[in-house]
Amino acid sequence: MTTAAKSFDVAVLREDFPILHQSVHGHPLVYLDNAASAQKPRAVIDAISQFYSSDYSNIHRGVHALSERSTRRYEEARIKVQRFLNAADPHEIIFTRGTTEGINLVAQTYGRKHVGPGDEILITGLEHHSNIVPWQMLCEEKGAKLRVVPVDERGEVGALELTDRTKLVAIAHISNALGTVLPVREIVEQAHRRGVPVLVDGAQAVPHMKVDVRALDCDFYVFSSHKLYGPTGIGVLYGKKALLDAMPPYQGGGDMISSVTFEKTTYNTVPYKFEAGTPDIAGVVGLGAAIDYVNEIGLENMAAQEADLLEYATAALSKIEGLRIIGTARHKAAVISFVLEGVHPHDVGTILDRQGIAVRTGHHCAQPVMDRFGIPATTRASFAFYNTRDDVDALVRGIEKVKEIFR
Amino acid sequence: MIDDLYQEIILDHSKKPRNFGHLENPSATAEGFNPLCGDRLTLQLKIENDIIQDVRFVGGGCAISTASASLMSEMLKGRTRQDVEKLFESFHQLLTTDAGQAADLGKLAVFSGVREFPARVKCATLAWHTMKAALENSREKVSTE
After folding, report:
1. Topology of domain B2-144, CATH
2. Which of A229, A302, B28, B84 is the S-S candidate for B134 at Cβ 3.0 to 4.6 Å?
3. Neighbours of A138 (CB within 10 A)
4. Considering only CB atoms, which chain A residues are within 8 Å of B118?
5. Which class does domain A10-31+298-402 fall in?
């Protein structure tokens, strides 16, 4: 008898995802746009539907049964996230609208309090626009400087140069455009030696690897539910409790206060201090269901399948004449960005789409990465555990068709 | 379906764009940018007596946007502002409605396949929007003199 709740059989697991079983332009759908957003298993769709059908009400302070049930479901999800990240305390988990809001929250609270004229914020050349622009806005407001750790030919980041003026380091855990896995533990250690806190953008990491915020020792960690097979519109900011306690609030409103008079408002404790207004309650419940689903399958099983796909796809695509893979870091997630000689990625994307293959084309919200490699855009195939080697074969055939049209 | 989009003439113009380069003394210049795909285009016009005498463009983009710029450039010479604006209107109709009058459009009719690919309409119109901006730039210059 096996003890695993669910054995890892991709063909069986694909049945959990209703959307995958359809034809697009007369071909079976091959979904290779997982780095943009992952599809949702039945368990998540049903959890949201069930919640709205039987338990839904506004949360906190309600004395009636539905409000108590909804509050319980909401707070249970917080504990699921806490355990998922191995955070020390559920109060370190703040629900946001997504990764972008989590970064903006830290920039506008911790950042505005601690960054001043002449100070520096350090990011890497691999960042998504959402981990660039909030810091640029802060630097502009404060007269601070945004410094960028350069990226090499493989798509790996160089050494950090911290100075006495560095007030914060903000880095991706995995690059969305190239798939590079950054050495977060080492970067945190280096920053901490100078007493500089580190924010990690984990949007691309949480669906693909076990993240332990205490082992990483990062100060802030942000991610989005929708890339983790959960609903859109919900995300998480993890922050060390002492830092969160000392931070000013982000938005003012209901739920984030303890008492209000016209003279003086006392703010609530964390995490509620940062959760003004009625949150996306069903979204949080859906995220909880997504975490249950991922735990049931096992992140290590998912990661193993994705590693196999990365290896298989890298070998297969490398054989295609005129195709160049952008991003060849030694430690990579299952993301393959490529350019095809003589064909613009937008044309590649359209021709693949007509064969039922969904990829992303463009700058992937990482224009500085494109500039680094001197290209306007790439075509990006990004894999999830529910993808198969057949999907890779379909992609290869699709690219051959592109070449045939553009020969 | 896909062959309706990537017709031979479009592939030919995308690989060997006509009127590619710069003008010596342009009457107007404009830059176009499609943030969706990162396509950039710089277009120059030489206008005399309200008639477009010459046109050049540089820039990189997808096959549709490059071919559109190239084929457009061939259609502009000898036409007045008004002619050109009318032509853009018909071209836009061709791309977005079933009622496009392909007959007036000459070679531009090859873009009728774009209609089936709504995400690509912007690629086909980038050069035209840039040309319109260039015309407006030149008008501004005239009015300030």
Report:
1. Sufe protein. Chain: A (3.90.1010)
2. B28
3. 23
4. none
5. alpha beta
